[in-house]
């Protein structure tokens, strides 16, 4: 029975392999894989004729094919995708694609197709199945583009990035009903006339980044989902004022000159709004409302049209109830109006960093319920107010960044419901950490009992000395206390509650000094990365040798040497990177360097900057002068000889003295011996 089954199996296997025609797996030049042929970078000047006839994808990037001749692809009838980037390609002859009816993807990036564009255009016209065309980097002007894409109704995706297009009007982009993706970034576009994209009814993604567009007025591409106008010269963005339901989901207007928050479509599906690096501010508080409209003048041929926009219309930013990601960092906001976040019920990420905010009211609004991360770093906040009486406020918050502000404390109940918060950055604020009798004091920050907290940054806060249980009830994994010279005045005691959790600890510039038992790291058994730089350590803390550190930073201390035995323990096994420069090493006690080298896996990241001191002069520890080495040898290695030389005269003197004594008392000694002998012989 088993034999029959085996027979059948063998037959099936035989049929399977024997009759199927597979493309050859080897070619003298190109890499073959399934039906894909890769001939990139082979210095070819024409298309090879001996490739497998069934080839579907052909890559010929970075060759020297300057001309694609008539019928050069005729034997590859199944070709679907062809890539000819970086070839110096000047012309595609009109009959080049005859026979390749199924070609759907064509990439011609970085060539010089502007040279004979009309001939190339005739060739493209024969590609009736073309769906994706990449013409980026070909020095094409808008009129050349016109000619080249005129008869490609099947096109779905077109890239014209990095060409020489300057202005667009309704003559361009006709007859492309299926196009949904258009990339026009990195051109010289300074003007787009109304109706320029009217022919593109299916357009969903439009990229106009890196151009010279000064404003967008009457934006009415209702079906568009992604619009990217970043890195232009936009001062204004006005959507058409109507009640059409825009499909817009992502709008990138970052790196422009916007003075006002963009005037968005009233009805939209915006999820991501990127406005970083502009000049936006709110001005309601500064000027009188009556004077607040702007008149825009449009010149269209000989027709002048003036439209007036009210700038202070409440909620002029449209209904942003779908917005989840808002980046308005690097602007000039002095304040955020109370109504601003209203209706943004799904907002999860807000970036307000690098503005000029002095106060901020985070009133308990629906808006704050889904907030996951809030970045308010690099402002001038001295006052953060919250009305967070209701349950459920900030319940989703995971990350709060308040770095580089002027805060003295935080609202007392701020963290009452933040059960998911993992990261808080309060660096460079004049804050204090609350101690036990500070209950309810808004001028300090209460970290204790925040169970979810993992990462806490308190660098440069001028903190006073920490109390013993400042971090009790937390499980901090990463703590940065650097640049707080008083914070650990009496040793590491305040860290004892979290010592066993910490993995990354920065104690740079915390005034640590002396070898005493105060600097005992033995409880920090999970520590992986420790920064002790810019302190006054003159002796390597012995307790470090039992840790499993990967990275250790000891720069700018007063160390004279590293004890070699420290590296023979646990530390030597786990250590991978160590920073050692700017200490006071003794040139004659560099044995630790060889010990580290011998371990093999320890990288001294700043070895070239490590110096040592020999008779009050500093030398690079890498290129120690031969004379210093010799002098050190004399001093240390031959110490035994020195001792010998020093003790020899004493020894000789003793010997001589002993000799003299022996000689002078010889008579008497002999007599004594004789006397004894006699007495004993009288038996
Ligand atoms: C290439 O083919 C086109 C059309 O098939 C023809 O008009 C043209 O003359 C041919 N060019 C050459 C160089 O043979
Ligand atoms: C291609 O363009 C160059 C210069 O623009 C011209 O000299 C040459 O005749 C053109 N070739 C064809 C086939 O049109
Ligand atoms: C917009 O285009 C720029 C340039 O290509 C790119 O860096 C940026 O990520 C794009 N924005 C979005 C939202 O994709
Ligand atoms: C605003 O208008 C009031 C009168 O309506 C006037 O007294 C005040 O000076 C104006 N302020 C500014 C900044 O123009
Ligand atoms: C504007 O120009 C068009 C031709 O471009 C002309 O027919 C029309 O009379 C002009 N209108 C005015 C007001 O000058
Ligand atoms: C001028 O603007 C108005 C309103 O925005 C519009 O209805 C009208 O068609 C425009 N006229 C011209 C000549 O563009
Ligand atoms: C905003 O739109 C949502 C649905 O898209 C709707 O439920 C909500 O009422 C709108 N808000 C305002 C203030 O119009
Ligand atoms: C906020 O923006 C700044 C600067 O653009 C950036 O460095 C930071 O990572 C952003 N914050 C978040 C949370 O994405
Ligand atoms: C800090 O907060 C915890 C609970 O979040 C509370 O038990 C403790 O009393 C507070 N301490 C101070 C000084 O406010
Ligand atoms: C350099 O070493 C000498 C002893 O060799 C010592 O007296 C001197 O203080 C050291 N100089 C410095 C700057 O540490």
UniProtKB/TrEMBL annotation:
Signal sequence bounds: 1-20
Pfam family membership, one: LRR_1
Record protein name field: Negative regulator of reactive oxygen species
Species this chain originates from: Anolis carolinensis
SMART domains for this protein: LRR_SD22 (SM00365), LRR_TYP (SM00369)
Top-level taxonomic group: Eukaryota
Keyword Acyltransferase: no
CC annotations in GO: plasma membrane
Gene: nrros
GO molecular-function terms, A-Z: signaling receptor activity
């Amino acid at each position: 029975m088993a034999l029959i089954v085996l027979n059948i199996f063998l037959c099936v296997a035989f049929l399977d392999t024997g009759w199927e025609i597979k493309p050859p797996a080897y070619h003298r030049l190109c890499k073959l894989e399934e039906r894909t042929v890769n001939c990139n970078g082979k210095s070819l000047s024409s298309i090879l004729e001996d490739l497998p006839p069934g080839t579907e994808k052909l890559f010929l990037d970075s060759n020297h094919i300057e001309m694609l001749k008539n019928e050069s692809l005729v034997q590859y009838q199944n070709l679907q995708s062809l890539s000819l980037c970086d070839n110096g390609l000047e012309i595609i002859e009109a009959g080049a694609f005859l026979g390749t009816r199924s070609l759907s993807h064509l990439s011609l990036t970085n060539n010089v197709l502007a040279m004979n564009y009309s001939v190339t255009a005739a060739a493209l016209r024969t590609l009736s199945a073309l769906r994706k065309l990449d013409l980026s980097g070909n020095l094409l002007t808008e009129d050349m583009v016109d000619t080249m894409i005129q008869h490609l109704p099947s096109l779905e995706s077109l890239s014209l990035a990095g060409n020489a297009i300057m202005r667009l009007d309704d003559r361009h982009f006709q007859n492309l009903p299926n196009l949904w993706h258009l990339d026009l970034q990195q051109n010289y576009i300074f003007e787009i006339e109304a109706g320029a994209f009217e022919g593109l009814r299916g357009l969903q993604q439009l990229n106009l980044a890196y151009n010279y567009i000064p404003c967008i007025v009457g934006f009415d591409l209702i079906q568009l989902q992604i619009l990217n106008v970043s890195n232009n010269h936009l001062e204004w963005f006005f959507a058409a004022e109507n009640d059409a339901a825009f499909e817009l989901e992502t709008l990138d207007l970052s790196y422009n000159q916007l003075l006002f928050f963009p005037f968005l479509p009233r009805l939209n599906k915006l999820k991501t709004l990127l406005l970083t690096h502009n000049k936006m501010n709110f001005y309601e508080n500064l000027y009188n409302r009556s004077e607040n409209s702007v008149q825009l003048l449009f010149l269209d041929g000989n027709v002048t049209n003036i439209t007036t926009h009210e700038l202070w219309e409440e909620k002029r930013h449209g209904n942003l109830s779908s917005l989840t990601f808002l980046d308005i960092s690097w602007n000039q906001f002095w304040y955020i109006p109370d109504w601003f976040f209203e209706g943004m019920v799904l907002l999860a990420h807000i970036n307000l960093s690098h503005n000029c905010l002095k106060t901020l009211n985070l009133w308990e609004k629906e808006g704050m319920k889904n907030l996951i991360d809030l970045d308010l770093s690099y402002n001038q906040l001295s006052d953060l107010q919250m009305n967070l009486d209701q349950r459920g406020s900030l319940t989703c918050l995971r990350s709060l960044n308040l770095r580089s502000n002027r805060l003295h404390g935080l609202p007392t109940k701020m963290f009452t419901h933040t059960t998911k918060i993992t990261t808080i950055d309060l660096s460079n604020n004049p804050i204090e950490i609350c101690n036990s009798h500070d209950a309810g004091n808004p001028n300090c920050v209460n970290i204790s009992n925040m169970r979810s907290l993992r990462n806490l940054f308190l660098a440069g806060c001028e903190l006073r000395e920490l109390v013993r249980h400042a971090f009790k009830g937390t499980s901090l994994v990463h703590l940065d206390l650097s640049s707080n010279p008083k914070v650990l005045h009496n040793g590491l005691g305040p860290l004892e509650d979290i010592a066993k959790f910490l993995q990354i600890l920065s104690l740079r510039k915390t005034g640590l000094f002396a070898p005493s038992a105060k600097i005992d790291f033995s409880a920090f058994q999970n520590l992986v990365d420790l920064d002790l730089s810019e302190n006054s350590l003159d002796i390597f803390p012995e307790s470090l040798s039992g840790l499993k550190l990967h990275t250790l930073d000891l720069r700018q201390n007063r160390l004279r040497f590293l004890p070699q035995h420290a590296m023979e323990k646990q530390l030597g096994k786990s250590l991978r990177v160590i920073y050692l420069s700017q200490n006071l090493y003794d040139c004659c006690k560099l044995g630790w360097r060889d010990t580290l080298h011998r371990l093999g896996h320890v990288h001294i990241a700043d070895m070239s900057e490590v110096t040592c001191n020999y008779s009050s002069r500093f030398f690079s520890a890498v290129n120690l002068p031969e004379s210093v080495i010799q002098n050190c040898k004399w001093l240390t290695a031959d110490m035994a000889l020195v001792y010998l030389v020093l003790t020899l005269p004493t020894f000789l003197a003793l010997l001589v003295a002993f000799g003299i004594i022996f000689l002078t008392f010889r008579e008497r000694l002999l007599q004594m011996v004789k006397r004894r002998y006699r007495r004993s012989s009288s038996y």
